[in-house]
Amino acid sequence: MEETWFVVIVTLCINSLIQSVFKLFLLPPLLSTKDKLKKRIRRRLPPGPSALRGLLRLNKPAVSLQTILQELRSKYGPFITLKTGLFSEPEIYVGSHSLAFRALVQNSSVFSDRPRSPDAHSVFTSNQHNINTAFYGSFWRLIRRNLSANILHQSRVKCFSGCRKKVLKSLINRLLNHSINRTSVQAYEEFFYTIFSLVALMCYGENLEEKDFRELEAVHQRIMDGFVGGPFTVLMAWPRLGKFLFRNKWNQLLQVRQHQVDVYMSYIKDRIREKEEGTKSGFTYVDTLLDLEVQEKEQQKRKLTQGEMVSLCSEFLFAGTDMTSTAMQWIMANLVKYPNIQAKVYEEIAAVMGGPPSSSYDNETAMRFVREKDQQRMPYLKAVVLEGLRRHPPMHILLPHSVTEEVVLDGYDLPKNTTVHFLVAEMGRDPKVWEDPMAFKPERFLTGSGEVVFDITGSREIKMMPFGAGRRICPAFNLGILHLEYFIANMIWYFEWRNADGGEIDLTDKHEASVVMKNPLKAHLYPRFKFN
Q: Which residues are listed for heme binding in this entry (predicted)?
């Protein structure tokens, strides 16, 4: 708390000092022409609080940005300007479906850029050289196209079915152990490790073992711990000056990054050696990065740097794991909270697959699973996943967008390079669009014939956008949904899930790297079969 107020007070003082210097020495030259002055006066931004009031609101201890935005929306509406400092550029927050559609879909090229990242983040993205943070341009198109064509294409996704089955076997056997020993399952830990293992296999190859998963996971967790309530948060509060004001923490951040580079490059070099020796098996994300060539000026091409490859692999692991495992916990929590919905999911699975799977505890080769092609015959399962993403999107606010040129949206002026945020949770819970929006009702996605017909990309209309929309939509949204359906279907087919603590499931959320359960799901599992 003391550190928080220290940051607030020092920020106010420095902002005031900079503002005074600006007014005395820099402002007159900038306003030397009448045209610039008139343009400045005519600019009309969306409504919002004053800079000072916005800064004080944002630095209230124990008050989340989401709570502040809900308060502001009730006063100013779904289109808000918020300044985070006395001298900072205004940022725009959009909570309207129609405005989001007009911006991200109908005017996608203008809204497809990214703002400059804080220096602390840029260290881990090789100066914004990954898909999520790269500026809109040729490099972003190259690395996104590489991922989409070489990893996320339907034919490639099928090639990874063996990896999915491998980690699913491991998960089911771990859950069986909990069930036999009558111990509760820490759901998120199991989900995270399972999805992380799968994505690591897709990234580095099928030869990885448990010790490799644990080593890579430890690197990932060390970075997350640094940014979520850890020593690097103060660097984020000072995006440009933090590395000078808090030199020890900055050096600590650089050490963490170097450790990440050392560990990740050891796996990349293993893949290079396998390729040279002719022992390489399968196809991985690293293979595509090693083959990629970046077009530079004057028709010159270059390979990706080590830092760029590490940043892209890190993004692949983080985006592929955190969002999916977070969404999986929310969905499973609702299936535990509402046993009738869990029963309907099981009934649909059993109708396609037959009765409970036979026991396979001592014979892994005989284990039966719901397969990807079986999922296509399970519309209620798909509706449950969509409802989970609507009601509990892993990110309540999309990664920030930036406009490439001055643009008018809903009668308001957005200057070039303005940062724009889209409020995902607000849109998915809007009572004007969704009846009884806070309820968990998968049936809302089913047609009269019992099928699911819903465009989650928002290409025709945005009702919810857990994966974003437009040119910056998450390229792996289909893979994410496939993973959710695949693992949830098999966990429900094998086990009945009940709350380990008894009573009601607490769906209170907490904002970390993603929006997680404040009280994580703990469950007791009851096999739907008898052991052989």
A: 474
- Contact between 55 and 12 under an 8 Å Cβ cutoff? The reply is yes
Please choose, from the candidates 403, 405, 421, the residue with its C-alpha nearest in 3D space to the C-alpha of residue 80.
421
Residue 49 CB neighbour total at 10 angstroms:
19
Give the C-alpha separation, 483 to 497, whole Å.
Answer: 19
Same-domain check for residues 71 and 143: no
Query: Do residues 61 and 173 share a domain?
Result: no
Q: What ranges in 151-284 are assigned the alpha helix state H?
A: 154-159, 161-181, 187-204, 210-227, 233-237, 242-245, 247-277
Residue 13, domain member (yes or no): yes
Residues sharing a CB contact under 8 Å with residue 532, sequence separation 6 or more, in sequence order: 358, 359, 360, 361, 362, 363
Is 124 inside a domain boundary?
no
Residue 110 lies in a domain: no
Q: Are 494 and 175 in contact (CB under 8 A)?
A: yes
Last residue of a domain, one of 56, 88, 120: 88
Q: Are residues 175 and 72 in the same domain?
A: no
Of the residues 88, 116, 147, the one at which a domain ends: 88
- The whole-angstrom separation of Cα 395 and Cα 245 is 30
Q: Binding residue per annotation — 313?
A: no
Q: Among 475, 481, 456, which Cα is nearest to 382's?
A: 481
Q: What share of the chain is helix, strand, coil (3-state, %, to 5)?
A: 55, 10, 35
Q: How many domains does the chain have?
A: 2
Q: Residue 160: how many CB atoms within 10 A of its CB?
A: 20
Q: How many helices (H) and strands (E) does the chain have?
A: 22, 13
419-422/91-94 β-pairing = parallel
Q: Which residues contact 437 (CB under 8 A, 6 or more apart)?
A: 391, 428, 429, 430, 431
- Same domain, yes or no: 346 and 211: yes
Interval 329-387: pLDDT, tens: 999 999 999 999 999 999 999 999 987 786 555 555 567 999 999 999 999 999 999 99
Beta bridge partners of 294: 302
Dist. CA 456–CA 488, nearest whole Å = 19
Low-confidence ranges of the chain (pLDDT < 50): 1-2, 4-9, 12, 20-25, 29-38, 40-41
Q: What is the pLDDT of residues 163-185, one digit of tens each?
A: 999 999 999 999 999 999 999 99
- Give me the domain span that covers residue 266: 138-527
- The enclosing domain of 406 has a CATH number of 1.10.630.10
Q: Which among 409, 468, 388 is positioned nearest to 45, based on CA atoms? A: 409
User: Do the strands 293-295 and 301-303 form a parallel or antiparallel pair, or are they unpaired?
Assistant: antiparallel
Joined together, the tokens standing for residue 52 give 């000072």
Long-range contacts of the stretch 142-150 (C-beta < 8 A, 24+): 142/292, 142/294, 142/295, 143/292, 143/312, 144/475, 146/288, 146/289, 146/292, 147/285, 147/288, 147/316, 147/475, 147/476, 148/475, 150/285, 150/288
Same domain flag for 406 and 276:
yes
Q: Could you tell me if 411 and 47 are in contact, meaning their C-beta atoms sit under 8 angstroms apart?
A: no
Q: How many CB atoms lie within 10 A of CB 40?
A: 11
Does one domain contain both 515 and 381? yes
